[in-house]
Amino acid sequence: xTYARLSTIVALAFTTVTVxxxxxxxxxxxxxxxxxxxxxxxxxxxxxxxxxxxxxxxQCGEEAHSALRISFHxxxxxxINGGKGGGxxxxxxxxxxxxxxxxxxxxIDDIVADQFPIFQTLNQQMNISAGDFLHxxxxxxxxxxxxxxxxxxxxxxxxxxxxAPDLTVPEPTDSVTDIxxxxxxxxFSPAEAVALLSSHTIAAADVI
Length: 208
Hints:
The record marks 69 as: Transition state stabilizer. One of its GO terms (cellular component) is extracellular region. The chain is mainly α. It has a single domain, classed as Peroxidase, domain 1 (Orthogonal Bundle), CATH 1.10.520.10. Helices cover 46% and strands 2% of the residues. The chain contains nine helices and two strands. It has helices spanning 3-11, 41-53, 62-75, 91-94, 96-99, 109-126, 130-143, 176-185, 190-198, and strands spanning 27-28, 34-35. It is globular, with a radius of gyration of 17 Å. The two termini are 34 Å apart.
């Protein structure tokens, strides 16, 4: 993985860190990288660990595609009206025995099996939350694919407290009206919903 790509990914984590614009200083991390906030230093090693142990050395392979897919399945467990889970909190990893039993999550078990032990290792090393791990993996994996956008990564999610409820992921058999209603309940416009559905062309789809 090139340093430029790594710097791009880690820099996106700074959006949740408040820094006095007049006092911005560079911090040199123990691994030799520099950042504007020492809290972000462990992310450099985390990204390298993901690239080596999950993405086969920065490859745009099945693991990268599935990392993007599981990011969505985790995040859609949310409602602007409340009552449908904590959203992008990593609950699909922590409460995988519950959420993998949902019909709409068919085929997600492979990437959970790949990611969970890596999450446990990084959690022990740097106390990264399941949500931060899962969505960092999604951003890193996507960055490995030629022509793909660099996804914004928000650092600082708390640990999930419960599994997302069933029926938050729209099913292929649902009507267009029901699918758009579910996406609207999660805060997406119809155009955004169509774009998300089309992402299966670069993510992954199983058990349809």
